[in-house]
Amino acid sequence: STLELSLAARHPGQTAGVSVGTAGAQSRAWRAGDPLRNSTQIQVSRDARLASGNSLSTRLSYTHETRLDAASLSADVWRLGAQHGRALETGSIVFDVQVTQASSASALVDRREIRALAAYAHGETVFGVLPTLRAQMTQRDYAEVSGLFGTTRDDFEYSVGLELAVPSLNAMGFMPTVTLTARRNSSSIAAYETETLGLRFGYRSSF
Hints:
Elements: E1 2-12, E2 18-31, E3 34-49, E4 54-67, E5 75-87, E6 91-104, E7 111-122, E8 130-146, E9 151-165, E10 174-187, E11 194-205
Antiparallel strand pairs: 1-2, 2-3, 3-4, 4-5, 5-6, 6-7, 7-8, 8-9, 9-10, 10-11
């Protein structure tokens, strides 16, 4: 379980259609009733509304994560990302790229990462549901070295997901969702190769 306190503010920029945001969050997580980690995050972002239904945003965040179960797994994480959105006649499409640098005393956590995501949200219901399709690819280079010949751990993960929202069951501005996700992680170290299939139920804002 996780308890999080967050604050956010957004300010209009000097150029029309541009805004600058700042946000901070403090959280604590537990596992089986025992404290697991404390996390502090600070983020700044810039959003711009462009012509023809386009939008462009950039963000920079820093997270300090303290592991309470194993101090060596604590990390300082920097993330730099950019997102481009476009409104279409049938819905909207989003492209997102993020670069991550995690510094840690543990080779299991210390890594460089780049992630690319594309999502398409259909604007009208299909058989009573609003579908959203997502595809994501992530490349991670870890500090960990394993094996007789000193193999460096390099992971490549890709996933696809389909979310179905049910607007007819909207309550107080939120509608139920069902998300099916398939994920595969290939690695230079065989022990980290995985394939997962997930099903999640939740709610999302309808405004």
